[in-house]
Amino acid sequence: MPRNSRRRPTPRAASNARMNSGNAELARELAPGGRIRAAINLGNPVLAQRGADGELTGISVKLAHELAQRLDLPLELVAFNAAGKVVSALREDAWDVAFLAIDPARAEAVDFTAPYVIIEGGCLVAKSSPLQHVEEVDRDGARIAVATGSAYDLFLTRTLRHATLVRHGSGEAALAAFRAGSLDVLAGVKSPLHRVADRDPRVRVLSGAFMQIEQAMGIPGGRPAALAFLSAFVEDVKASGFVADALDRTGQTDARVAPAASSRPRA
């Protein structure tokens, strides 16, 4: 069976996951303002995109709409051009639910569900680069462009021993800096890097992946009822085929549905 061709979501599966949406405690925790403000990270094109008509689409947008429908609450999509800006906006109480990669640094302020999608982190280099595999990137003198506060920025900050990270405000800015020629590597989500390489014969994607990026739903910390509801919601949309269907419909065939939480290896 193809990776993302699991069974289509059914009304029965959806109804089974409808928790007690009238629960006052849940409503206060998940949407204290009376509507769900969902942070949409446009910096990760696997998760979300803005169409030519300006409308937001992508798997995180579809999940936000499904969540609001199940709870019978109005939905407000709050767009950001980088994951780091989503996390920073939490200090301004700018969102109630977000779609972010799980990371220990973020977990200090954000409570995460289990992941719903897993994608890979990869590296883009010039065609003439001597580098062939992602494991060769961490070398003295290497300069790696990243989007500030992205999952791969946080991961590489913890793991690099020799190379230097050069941070930029968004993925687009990091790509522009890399194309300017002063940087050796661009780190990012692997599938969009492949699309860049497909359009530009001057660059190529290194073999391998430096990390598995677990995309999950997150909420401000200290909201246990909301977290329990969202965790059950994520497990349902994975099991019902909703996530696989959303990936297929948005053309993100390189991403894969995360396993059920009960089957994930313990840390």
Short description:
The chain is α/β, with parallel strands linked by helices and 267 residues long.
Number of helices: 9
What is the molecular shape? elongated
Low-confidence stretches: 1-22
Strand residues, percent: 15-25%
Note down, in words, how this protein is organized.
The chain is α/β, with parallel strands linked by helices. The chain has two domains: 11-118 and 214-263, 3-Layer(aba) Sandwich (D-Maltodextrin-Binding Protein, domain 2); 119-211, Periplasmic binding protein-like II (D-Maltodextrin-Binding Protein, domain 2, 3-Layer(aba) Sandwich). Helix content is 32%, strand content 24%. The protein contains nine helices and 13 strands. The protein has helices spanning 11-16, 24-30, 59-71, 83-89, 151-159, 171-179, 190-199, 224-239, 242-249; strands at 36-41, 49-50, 56-57, 75-80, 97-101, 110-112, 117-126, 143-147, 164-168, 185-189, 203-205, 211-220, 256-257. The strands form two sheets. Strands 1, 4, 5, 6, 7, 8, 9, 10, 11, 12 and 13 form an eleven-stranded mixed β-sheet that branches. Strands 2-3 form a two-stranded antiparallel sheet. Helix 2 (24-30) crosses helix 8 (224-239). It starts with 10 loop residues before the first helix and ends in a 10-residue tail after the last strand.
